[in-house]
Amino acid sequence: MEIKGPKIKKYMEEFIVKPGKDIKLKKFNTGWAIKEELKKFDDSEAKTKAQEILERDKDRLAKAQELLYADKSYALLIVLQGMDTAGKDGAIRHVMSGVNPQGCSVSGFKVPSSMEHSHNFLWRYSNCLPQRGMIGIFNRSHYEDVLAVKVHPDRLEKLPKELVKTENGTFWDWRYNDIRNFEKHLVRNGTVILKFYLHISKKEQKKRLMERFNNKDKYWKISPFDVEERAYWNDYEKAYEEMLAATSTDYAPWFVIPSDYKWAARAFIAEVIVTAIEGLNLKYPEVTKEQIARLMEAKKKLESGK
């Protein structure tokens, strides 16, 4: 039986990493022209238009989330990955600002604790998965274990030496396979998975880091480590390319989102999420005749009371 992925609009497909295809991120745009209707505008006009699209989609998302919550057939898992300053936090804050907090959870994953390191690498992510009817957001995710850990192998959890066979990519191939099977299991059990790689240029990242250094109110968001990691830019880019190619599937595709302009990235992410939920053909629960009769009795009591 074929496992189907999320239903999205046709034009969005150009941002999907084709399953099994090698990719070069340099061939993907980091700018803002992500929709035909925006390409005819200059930057200022496009920003205004994108913000209009985002506001419209936030209203649609609020309604779609309510239906998802009421139907309780599916869960939605949103995965956000990207270099530092790519806009993951901002995307969550702006795109999800209109949804009911009771139907949404956000999980951020930092350096694993000793407890987390003592389990298999997917354990801590499994504990944060959304239940049916809910939207779950992973700000960074299970992909850190084939990205940051791949760039910095010293961060790998303690494993038997005979299992850590990195020659010819064996170990990492195992991890990619584990992730694909993990996501296949989730999809088979009613979780829709949307994965977004926020694609930012190195030049734009430097600009955003400098903005933080030049604003004391932003010092809490930055550390020397952020600058030190820029030395590994090419290594991270290569790790992302290999990860995207190995783990973008028909049932859980990766979207490469141009993210040098935050407003454009947010508008696109919102539209993908909305169309994916709307494509599920969800319905509000049916109310039986008996339930309606009891409701009408309760209504009469309310009307006749003080």
Describe the protein.
With 306 residues, the protein is α/β, with parallel strands linked by helices. 45% of the residues lie in helices and 10% in strands. It has helices spanning 36-39, 43-71, 88-95, 114-117, 123-126, 148-151, 170-188, 202-213, 224-228, 233-247, 262-278, 289-304; strands at 75-82, 104-108, 135-139, 191-199, 254-258. Strands 2-3-1-4-5 form a 5-stranded parallel sheet, with helices on both faces. The relative contact order is 0.22.
How would you sum up this structure in a few lines?
The protein is of the alpha/beta class and 306 residues long. The protein has twelve helices and five strands. The mean pLDDT is 88.
Rounded average pLDDT = 88
Largest sheet: number of strands, sense, barrel closure: 5 strands, parallel
Strand content: 5-15%
**Overall spatial form:** globular
Helix fraction, binned, reads 40-55%
Number of strands: 5
Major sheet: arrangement of strands? 2-3-1-4-5
H/E element order: HHEHEHHEHHEHHHEHH
Secondary-structure class: alpha/beta
Helix segment count? 12
Global Rg: 22 Å
Uncertain runs with pLDDT below 50, 5 residues or more?
Answer: none
**Cα distance, first to last residue?**
59 Å
